[in-house]
Task: structure prediction
Amino acid sequence: MAPSADPETSPSISTSNTDLQPFFLLHKAASRKPSSKTRRRIDLSPKASDASAQEYNDNSRFETFKLLWSNTESIIKDVLKNLNTTVFDGIDKWVHASFDAIRACRTPDFTTAMSMYPIPNNVPIGAQIFTALLFTKNVESVDDISTFADLGAHMRSSGCLVANLTSIDFSAKNGVGGCLKTLLRQFLLAGIDAPEMSILASWYNEQENYDKPLIVIIDDVERCSSSVLNDFILMLSAGLRLQYSLTCKWKNLAIDREWVIKVPIILVLGVATSVDALRNILCSSACLYLSVCEFNLGTPAERMDAVIEAVLLRSCQSFNIGKHVATFLRNYFLRHDGTLTLFVKALKIVTAQQVFSEPLSFVLRKLVNEEGTEARLTFLFFLFVYHLIELLYTHYLIFQGLDGDNILLREPAMKRALELPSLQRFWETSGNSIDWVSALSELKRLHQLWSSLVMCLYEIGRYRKISLLDLYCEMLKLKQQNFGANDLNLVEKDYSTSVHNYQSPGCLLDKGYIVRAFQMLRDLSAMELCKILDRWEMLTRGIEKIHEKVKELQSQITLEEKRSRHDLRKESKRPTARTYKNDKTSNSTINEKVASFLQSMFREYIQTIESIPLHEIIFFDNVDNLNTAKYCLSGQLYFALIGDPRRRIQADLLESRKFLKCSCCSKNDGVLVPSMHDTSIMYTLVQEHGDLINVHEWFHSFMAVISNPPLQAKKKLRMSPSPKKRKDSKEARTKTDASIQAVTELQITGLLRMPTKRRPDYVQRVAFGL
Amino acid sequence: MSKEESPLVGRRTTRSSLNSTPNSKAHQEVPKATNLSRPLTIKDLVFCGESISLDELINSFPGRRGQILDLVQFLGPLNSPMIPLFVYGGASTGKTSTVLYMFRHLKRPFIYCSCVSCYSPRILFESILNQLLLHRKNESGGYLSAKRCERPSDFVNLLREALTALIESLKGNTGKSSSKKSSSQVNGRMIYLVFDHLELIREWDKSESIIPLLFNLCNLLKIPEVGMIFISRASLDTFQSDTGYLEPFPIYFPEYTEDELRQIFMSNQANPKLYSSFLDLVLRPFYRITRRIDELSTAFSPLFKKYCEPLGDSVTAPVGDMTRKLFSHLQPFISISLNETFTLSSQALLKDRNMRKSVFKKPGETLDEIEFHMSTSAKYLLISAFLASRNPATLDASLFDSTGGTDNRKRKRKVSEKSIDQKEAKEQEILMKGPGTFPLERLLAIHQCISSVGEYSLDDEEPQNGGLGADGSDSGSMSDILLQLSSLCSANFITKGGSCPLEGSTRYRSIVSEDIVLRVARGLKFPLSKYLYRR
Result:
């Protein structure tokens, strides 16, 4: 962990760059805004140019990152928005329907709306508070914070008055007054000292909001304090009472609620788990008042698939993640976290790492920007750059780009570009001399092909709930030789029984999902097959070769269908069993055709990512790094995502000298020296004990370490013990203080538990092992 | 559906007649346009709408004749002082309605405060004062109360001022308007304070001082023109009464009998015969579960719709064979509805769907998947929390030792050797105790054991990741588990006992239902039954 990395090596590959903390780097870059001065400056003297080049590199990388990430972020946002709109529209419809129902029950009348006592009115029996349960389908609620804000905005735009409450408002500490206060603040836009429902009623009537429903959205019901939520619902509906209307011949059963009728409140509750959760929170009398309608948001897996489709497959100009990263993220998603937020965060980190570790990452910017004709221009531009570099190979050079952009390419970066193993391989195979253009276009073409084929496969997978995430990871792992006909034709005899094996979480079986997808393709009915081909036809637009073949297949199928229908009509007189059989066989032949088509596509066009030229630029996958556990990519991702504070604290306490870097104790390795930090000494001593630590023994060993003077001093001490007695006692006191402080610090960090009454001499270890 | 609409139409027309009353009243005094800013008058303290006779009142509350007569008697004739009354009885027995409609009958001014809406002493005090001072919160006033009042002593003083002023004006009013005979006339000089849901005050922070204050209000004020009526679901004994105030006179509202319930439900039915035959089927079984009108009516309304389904559009009363047919149609739904009486009711359409789902589900079949996403490690943690809560801690060693719980049989035999009585008693005890608590360490230990059994390891990406797997898997999942635990806590699957986080002695308890855990375990292919200690 060198504090300042060598400027020569730092921008290069991140393998050696151990302190590459993504956020740190981002921060650093952000503080140094690209100024025109540095961009225009031309300085050929080595030292100065080194610094400015460094700066320029940083800036350009930061800009690349900004562009890439803003692009990705907006795509993700759009995707999530689109996913939610149908649900939101459904809620909107329902809200207006329920509002109409409330209005039908009662036209708000001023005098009664303002009265404090329950209105004796004729509400149909069982009229309750209309409540929408919005199931977020995820135990973690991080993903849905924005969802509820979006819902609020959506409802506001459709003419409702909305208050967004969260579980924080329903805390037991503030009671029902707390949530009423927030409610009133959001509706009235004014702080109320003594919040009360009657204020809401008078506001609602005063503002002449009669024709607008009031919607109260509560984010995550599970986290609310149940008593407060109960009180709130009871207050909204205070007293479901039996009343006899005295207007309809004295015999009219009616139930009245104090405020729901006076103020048409509609609840939207976000539920993370299931209806049972609500039952557990609410008491039966509160449940009575809720008339429930259920809405479902997409599951995290669905959202994940949509995001992957949009970010990694559809926008194939942008960067991408390699198999190791993908697998790591997939496993993390399934096993540990399961939130999209984390996945997006990881993507961001990966983007940052890719941009900052890959010297050629600026190419990504070009790839993102380019569209249609511009693409060719960019290739030309690269060609131009390349030739210039060839000419001025030994010099630093500043190049004025075609688009007016300054690009400063330094020798190491260029070297790296030329030494990219994939590019070299490409040159070897193509026999061509150095050709950037073809390499880049090849990269793009293959990537596009690859993505569209993954999507085709996913279309099949949809029918049997294979998630895109799984398919994507498996496709990344795929090796070309796996597409031997034998492998894919392999029909598992115990297919039906083995299906559930694949579903066992976390284990990615080799070829599992792809083989299953092919299997399915053979089992699909003609209708489904038609649909899939239609989708394929759409997906493969732009890739002429495949597109044509798909169209061919489509026409074949329609032909077959016509024929079979014809056959059916012709053979209707014959026994049905025969026709059925015939139908089945013809069907399976079509299926076989489609399957073999897809197989051939795979064999022909799918290459392993590693064999695509320049794949290093697009696919971020630091395989080498994965071996060095601690600072490897997944290590970094791991720490960035989870933090793991406990482990960090323990490790750092045991190796405090690495951080303190003092001269006194950095030399001796692992041996306790008195100059070490007290807490560190104490914790190292803890390692020698079991789960119970005798405080006396511990203290004595601490004292022994602390007062372990060098040998000469010891001798001196022995010779003259008496005159220093007083000083000794003082020293001992400070040592005791130090030990007590150390123990308290250990307690605060959660590594120790203080002595109990039963065993006053012992402290207990809480954390074990690293 | 046609059933439901016909009474609605009738109601709508009647409602307009009801609403016309205050409006026409407003017409007489001030133009309608200024309705919003119209100042409140004493007449607003009287129940709006037309007056009703005593017979009408008694007729509209079946089974409440005695209580109504008692109430009217205790309130006495016009301008006579009264002792405080304490109206109590179970939920949904008509207490509030009876009292309110009695005031409609008497046309005397009253003030109503529900302790549900007024959730704190301050709100309660200010709400009473606002009504007495004829104050209305509005935007121009910044939605402020008439008087700011937080302390009980202030409240008594302000209340006395407000009451005397109001009674003065009432005296003047009765003198003037005695000649007028309008529907909104104000009878008498008495003013009544009605406190509803008094039992809720007991849960307030300062309940020890508020309840005696309210009960003692009569003595403190010493104004004979004030009457007090307390309405509560709990009886008087449940309020502490050692401060020596005059106890209010109790009036008990008993629960409705089956006949009374029938009368209540039969009132205002468009097709009495049909509904009667429906009640024949449902009232008796439901009567055993609950006698609350509100619960019954929410249970009945979807059932009645179901009941009418085979009839189609014909709204005739069923006869003979048809009754039997309707009965057999309804039969399966009754039992389902009986089980769901105290749970969340949903809109009719949804309920039907649910019913259909549960009716036509095969008996042994349960949903294999949980409805929401949970990460694998959270699932394992949930199972381990469940096990830690259900199994006695002493059995952990035998269940989770290195052999992976293979000596299960041995343990079982040992348990079965005990006498059956003892076993049953223990079973009962555990059932009563519910899920047990456990410290974090035990949870982590069990999690470690079962996640190793479940053949779930952190890394199966590639063998070359061995470095990470060996180095980081244990502690990595450790820190992760603490995160998972907190999210399980917030999802209400595990509750956390309150204690100092530094001490680390927090105890947890799994409150998740067995059904969910079983489903989770099935999803993971985890042999839950092998590890569950069965008594």
Remarks:
- DSSP finds 20 helices and eight strands in chain B.
- Residues 2-29 of chain B form the longest helix (28 residues).
- Residues 392 and 533 of chain B are 8 Å apart (CA to CA).
